[in-house]
């Protein structure tokens, strides 16, 4: 059962990275590779803690 939860977590995490990476141009963030990479990898933490990031994350996903 814990393996299934781990697999689901990884799938959700990777799909969040993929969707944000592809929709990054629709956000207000500075267009640089290090910025894009760090914001994509840290999306779960930033989504919970930062209101501005949540707004931009939704913009990136709407595409």
Task: Describe this entry's structure for a reader.
It contains four helices and no strands. The relative contact order is 0.17. The mean pLDDT is about 95. The chain has one domain. By secondary structure, the chain is mainly α. Helix 1 (about 1-20) runs antiparallel to helix 2 (about 35-40) and helix 3 (about 45-50) packs across helix 4 (about 50-60). Helices cover about 80% and strands about 0% of the residues.
How far do the termini sit from each other?
A: 35 Å
- How many individual β-strands? 0
Major β-sheet, in short?
Answer: none
**Helical segment tally?**
4
Radius of gyration: 12 Å
The ordered H/E elements are HHHH
Helix percent reads over 70%
Mean pLDDT: 94
What overall form do the CA principal axes indicate? elongated
Indicate the structural class: mainly alpha
Low-confidence runs: none
Query: What share of residues are in beta strands?
Result: under 5%
- Domain tally: 1
